[in-house]
Amino acid sequence: MPKLQVPKAIAGPAAWNGQELQKDTSWILEWTQDEIRELIEAGSYFLSLNKPLEQISPKYFPLASLSKKIKEFSNELLFGRGFLLIRGLPVDQLDLKLSATIYLGIGSHIGSLRSSNAKGHLLGHVKDQGVDIKNKDVRFYQTNKKLDFHTDSADLVALLCLQKAKSGGESYIASSISLYNEVALRRPDLVEALFMPYPTDRRGEIPDGYDPWYSMPIFTWFEDQLTCTYIRQYIDSAQNNFPDAPRLKLEQVDVMDLMDEILAERKVVLSMEFEPGDIQILNNHLILHSRSDFENWPEPERHRHLLRLWIAPNNARSLPEYYIPRWGSTTKGDRGGIIVPGTQLSVELNSL
Question: pTM of the predicted model, to two decimals?
Answer without folding.
Answer: 0.93
